[in-house]
Known about the structure:
The complex is a heterodimer.
Chain A: E1 2-11, E2 14-24, E3 29-33, H1 40-46, E4 55-60, E5 63-64, H2 72-77, E6 79-82, H3 94-106, H4 110-123, H5 139-151, E7 157-161, H6 169-184, E8 188-192, H7 196-202, E9 205-210, E10 213-218, H8 220-225, H9 230-239
Parallel strand pairs in A: 3-8, 3-9, 6-7, 7-8
Antiparallel strand pairs in A: 1-2, 1-4, 4-5, 9-10
Helix pairs in contact in A: 3-4, 3-5, 4-5, 5-6
Chain B: H1 12-45, H2 49-64, H3 67-82, H4 88-114, H5 117-125, H6 130-160, H7 172-183, H8 187-215
Amino acid sequence: xxxxxxxxxxxxxxxxxxxxxxxxxxxxxxxxxxxxxxxxxxxxxxxxxxxxxxxxxxxxxxxxxxxxxxxxxxxxxxxxxxxxxxxxxxxxxxxxxxxxxxxxxxxxxxxxxxxxxxxxxxxxxxxxxxxxxxxxxxxxxxxxxxxxxxxxxxxxxxxxxxxxxxxxxxxxxxxxxxxxxxxxxxxxxxxxxxxxxxxxxxxxxxxxxxxxxxxxxxxxxxxxxxxxxxxxxxxxxxxx
Amino acid sequence: xxxxxxxxxxxxxxxxxxxxxxxxxxxxxxxxxxxxxxxxxxxxxxxxxxxxxxxxxxxxxxxxxxxxxxxxxxxxxxxxxxxxxxxxxxxxxxxxxxxxxxxxxxxxxxxxxxxxxxxxxxxxxxxxxxxxxxxxxxxxxxxxxxxxxxxxxxxxxxxxxxxxxxxxxxxxxxxxxxxxxxxxxxxxxxxxxxxxxxxxxxxxxxxxxxxxxxxxxxx
Lengths: 240, 219
């Protein structure tokens, strides 16, 4: 589904991603872990062109992302993204947050968008908050709304950029539950996370990045038990 | 003390009519200034260099020269150059609208740049086209932040509108001068229209507060 070849990204002279090659299959859940500043988020943001790669190519369903700048809206509509800081639209109610993009970007009818919003809010357990404004919600609730908002576009792929890092500890679980539910439903997911428990339990594959280099990748079981690289061992010693 | 307000009583309807005359062109100037200011602000933050350059040059000219000069140039040069006999009313709308758009564009630019960058990224990630994103996501949030500054600009425009008296437009200010010349007493009519200007500005302030409260609903 996603084919990344020799992807590099520079900010000025600073090389933040160096020659990354990997591919992600449909229905796969991939966790990206690594120390801060390792380029995890930048890698994720390249996948929907919020960052423009300096070199290399990304293909999604056979379409080259970097070559089709004109069609980027269409491609992004198939890729949902969830941010660390939610980025809900504060001047819209929760329901409007979910309805806006399908109506504006895909031309979905109001009635259908409303019905979809209702279903999704139910799915993330927030049906009663449909008319609330984002600022009245807790962090965990905001993030669940943000997930629902991304799902409202019916994406084929979901990107999560540290979805639980800005949450109070007691709210992490409710968001992870929603993500697990999503993974079980067969959604293709790429998750940048510091939640090793989540990576271990839910991910089909773990990518370990350090200093912009894809140091190691593998199944969570073997990666967490027997990391082959020195750097991964060091990192796991610190966080586990 | 030689103050006699009873003498201006017969002239009060004449002066009150000036409220309408002033408000009429101030209203259109505010509309013109806001639309043009928004467009210029979008030019300034956009990626097209020529448009950015144009908007910057425009702002520099209209902020860099006196308003009264711009008014005179429009009122006197258009007939001279084109033969079209422009009315004081149209000249006033143009001068005030063009002038205030330079200030408004700066206010809006600052407001747009103060909106969290995440809002833009969220809209982009959802595949929302640029125009819709600006109109529905970024500008409404920017507007909330800049409302006090914008009200300030509208208040300034309302008061400075008195400058149009210099091209013979019969606004509040001009009417006070006419009455003063009639009576050989200037202080009373000037004081009277001063009070009216103050009331107009207070009215605007109240409207601004109301809008601000409405926009705060989502907090």
